[in-house]
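Technical note accompanying the year-one report. For the benefit of new consortium partners, we illustrate the data format agreed upon in the data management plan: each record pairs a sequence with a structure-token string. No post-processing was applied to the example shown here.
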Amino acid sequence: MILFFLLVCSGISLKAQSGELSEVPVPAQEFLKMKFPEATDAAWTRLDNDRFRARFRKEESALDQHAIIFSATGEWIETLSPIPVSQLPNDIIPSATDAHRGYDVARAYQVDQGGAVDLFEMKMRKKGYEDLTVRYNANGYKVTQVPARR
């Protein structure tokens, strides 16, 4: 009880994620409240020692969640906003499907990192294979690729 009281007074919010508790930095919580006041039910996850993620839906009917990534100190890193696959720039899908034969684009996100470069993240699926997460710029050039978690 005393530990809980001290944590609440110190401004650290705790929320259960996958059976563990995550300490969410106050600047991250304040950023989320200021930029996305509708995100009252955000689920926080500690991605690793250096990053936290807040996930939420902007609308009841939204099929996919927005994700905001923060540093361990609560500094904003990036925001991923779901978009329909049909809204990806024209050069991206041909580049991605050529580079990853047999994979289909399952989900798409616009990535905001506060810069001038437009980035798009796609979750790609191929039956019998591990999902892929790839990032492309608006001109259809691949920026990164990592295996996606299911």
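Partners are asked to follow this layout when depositing records. The longest strand covers residues 104-112.
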